[in-house]
């Protein structure tokens, strides 16, 4: 049986296990040039290959069956029935998990902002204000300040003080980084619109700092939701029908 370079344990623990296994099955099909109509190794063989349970493999296969990539025949096994585009298939699998985690992250961050705003120190506010102004300067030059944006949110998160919640949100942010690698590869045709949407989020960071200094929780949340609306717009560019109405 052909081996796959990817080790499930090395793929990160923040995404659902079956989703990571589904990614690896796609990679396995691509690397081993398994064509339409050909059979995959059994669930047991795949489970042994990646050191996971058969139930997790079964869930991953069900996910790929829902995506129209595999067909499962009772007593015979799993067969490839759709073309595998490595990046686009990973995108489809990750996108559902992405929006689910994005919704969780949004709820958590909004809760944290409500708690932080009345008590955040002037020292932290000054740091955030300085970073926000630097971000705006870079945006004025057409450059998205990714590192500064990450630093802004890191300082804001750390001011909350709940380490477990901070770790949870930071893990989700890591997931979004993986998603972005796939997303922006597929968004090459709308890169100008994408860039503008990203840049449009930046001025709101300084507005948020000013409202936090005024201890105006209501306005802070309103500004945060404007950023989220732009984020949703950004991530819905590939397929607007996938936009989450609940966010």
UniProtKB/TrEMBL annotation:
MF terms in GO: DNA binding; DNA-binding transcription factor activity
Alphabetical keyword list: DNA-binding, Transcription, Transcription regulation
Pfam families assigned: FCD (PF07729), GntR (PF00392)
InterPro entries with a match to the protein in the record: GntR_C, TF_FadR/GntR_C, Tscrpt_reg_HTH_GntR, WH-like_DNA-bd_sf, WH_DNA-bd_sf
SMART domains: HTH_GNTR (SM00345)
Positions of the HTH gntR-type domain: 15-83
PANTHER family membership: TRANSCRIPTIONAL REGULATOR, GNTR FAMILY (PTHR43537:SF54)
Protein known as: Putative L-lactate dehydrogenase operon regulatory protein
Gene: lldR_2
């Amino acid at each position: 049986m052909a081996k796959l370079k990817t080790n499930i344990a090395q793929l990160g623990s923040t995404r659902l296990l079956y989703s990571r296994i589904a990614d690896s099955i796609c990679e396995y099909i691509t690397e081993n040039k398994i064509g339409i109509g050909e059979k995959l190794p059994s669930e047991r063989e795949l489970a042994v290959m990646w050191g996971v349970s058969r139930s997790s493999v079964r869930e991953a296969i069900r996910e790929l069956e829902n995506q129209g990539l595999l067909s499962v025949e009772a007593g015979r096994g799993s067969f490839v029935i759709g073309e595998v585009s490595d990046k686009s298939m990973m995108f489809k699998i990750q996108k559902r998990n992405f929006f689910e985690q994005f919704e969780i992250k949004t709820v958590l961050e909004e809760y944290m902002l409500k708690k932080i705003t009345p008590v955040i120190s002037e020292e932290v506010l000054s740091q955030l204000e300085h970073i926000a102004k630097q971000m705006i300067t870079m945006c004025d030059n057409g450059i998205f300040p990714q590192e500064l944006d990450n630093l802004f949110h890191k300082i804001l998160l750390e001011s909350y003080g709940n380490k477990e919640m901070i770790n949870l949100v930071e893990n989700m942010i890591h997931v979004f980084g993986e998603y972005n690698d796939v997303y922006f590869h597929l968004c090459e045709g709308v890169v100008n619109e994408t860039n503008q949407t990203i840049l449009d989020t930046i001025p709101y960071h300084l507005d948020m700092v000013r409202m936090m200094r005024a201890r105006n929780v209501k306005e802070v949340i309103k500004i945060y939701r404007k950023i989220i609306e732009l984020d949703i717009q950004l991530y819905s560019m590939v397929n607007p029908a996938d936009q989450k109405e609940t966010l």
